[in-house]
């Protein structure tokens, strides 16, 4: 009789463990089902976030909040326009912070928005590629031994008491960036660089700086010429 005791104990233990796991799984499933307003639960293995639209929400605002592109948000929800109504439940793709597994290194929201602001101020009216190119210049400077090591320090750098970027001096860097500029910042942070490594850019129709015109040109995108060091 005693030789059956260990086997019986094992069977009872497995039954108890199974009951515990099933109960726990059901409780988790129930919790995920109820928590639909702003889920970061990744239920059923999904990396999507469910967001219930509130009064005053806009599709663009939600995209910015979760750091995803407006285009991507519309795509995953099969939307053909930006009209949304309170009570609508939207699927939001994995937050871009997780996706920004940045070849450049992780950045804070403040740095991301600062990069978007300098892109907006410097490249308003330029193509989307031209916007990415401006962001890439800022990030290329971080990688260069001749410039500061953070987005903020690069953008606010002075040379002989003169700001490196004119929008900092004239205050236009404080303008609210548009959706394209935010998306361009994300693209640049993900490693895209249409300039091929430029450290400088200028508009040849407006620039009066003779020195910058002596630098080797690596790309021309829209109204900007992109250059690197000698």
List the keywords:
about 230 residues, disordered N terminus, Membrane-bound Lytic Murein Transglycosylase D, Chain A, Arc Repressor Mutant, subunit A, 2 domains, two-stranded antiparallel ribbon, mainly alpha, 3-stranded antiparallel β-sheet, single chain, about 10% strand, about 45% helix, elongated, 7 strands, 9 helices
Structure characterization notes:
This protein has 230 residues and is mainly alpha-helical. It has 2 domains: 35-99, Roll (Membrane-bound Lytic Murein Transglycosylase D, Chain A); 109-227, Cell wall hydrolase SleB, domain 1 (Arc Repressor Mutant, subunit A), CATH 1.10.10. Helix content is 44%, strand content 10%. It has a 3-stranded antiparallel beta sheet with strand order 5-7-6, covered by helices on one side. Strands 1-2 form a two-stranded antiparallel ribbon. A hairpin with a 2-residue loop joins strand 3 (158-159) and strand 4. Helix 6 (128-143) packs across helix 9. It is elongated and about 60 Å long. Mean pLDDT is 78; it is low at 1-5, 13-46 and 96-102.
Assembly of the depicted chains: single chain
Helix percentage: 40-55%
Kindly estimate the percentage of residues that lie in beta strands according to DSSP. Answer: 5-15%
Order of helices and strands: HEHHEHHHHEEHHEEE
Quick description:
With 230 residues, the chain is mainly alpha-helical.
Write the layout of secondary structure elements.
Elements: H1 5-34, E1 49-52, H2 59-66, H3 70-76, E2 89-92, H4 96-99, H5 109-123, H6 128-143, H7 151-155, E3 158-159, E4 162-163, H8 166-170, H9 179-189, E5 200-202, E6 217-221, E7 224-227
Antiparallel strand pairs: 1-2, 3-4, 5-7, 6-7
């Amino acid at each position: 009789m005693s030789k059956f005791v260990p086997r019986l104990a094992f069977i009872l233990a497995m039954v108890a463990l199974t009951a515990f796991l099933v109960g726990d799984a059901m409780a988790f499933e129930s919790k995920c089902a109820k928590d639909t307003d702003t889920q970061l639960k990744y239920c059923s293995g999904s990396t999507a976030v469910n967001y219930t639209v509130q009064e005053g929400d806009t599709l663009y605002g939600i995209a910015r909040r979760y750091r995803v592109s407006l285009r991507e948000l519309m795509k995953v929800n099969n939307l053909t326009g930006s009209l949304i109504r309170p009570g609508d439940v939207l699927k939001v793709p994995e937050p871009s912070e997780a996706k920004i597994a940045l070849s450049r290194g992780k950045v804070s929201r403040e740095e991301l928005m600062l990069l978007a602001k300098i892109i907006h101020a410097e490249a308003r009216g330029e193509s989307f590629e031209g916007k990415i190119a401006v962001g890439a210049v800022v990030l290329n400077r971080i990688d260069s031994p001749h410039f500061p090591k953070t987005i903020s320090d690069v953008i606010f750098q002075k040379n002989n008491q003169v700001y490196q970027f004119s929008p900092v001096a004239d205050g236009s860097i404080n303008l609210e960036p548009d959706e394209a500029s935010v998306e361009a910042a994300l693209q640049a942070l993900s490693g895209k660089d249409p300039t091929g490594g430029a450290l400088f850019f200028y508009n040849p129709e407006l620039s009066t700086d003779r020195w910058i015109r002596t630098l080797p040109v690596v790309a021309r995108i829209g109204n900007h010429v992109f250059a690197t060091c000698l």
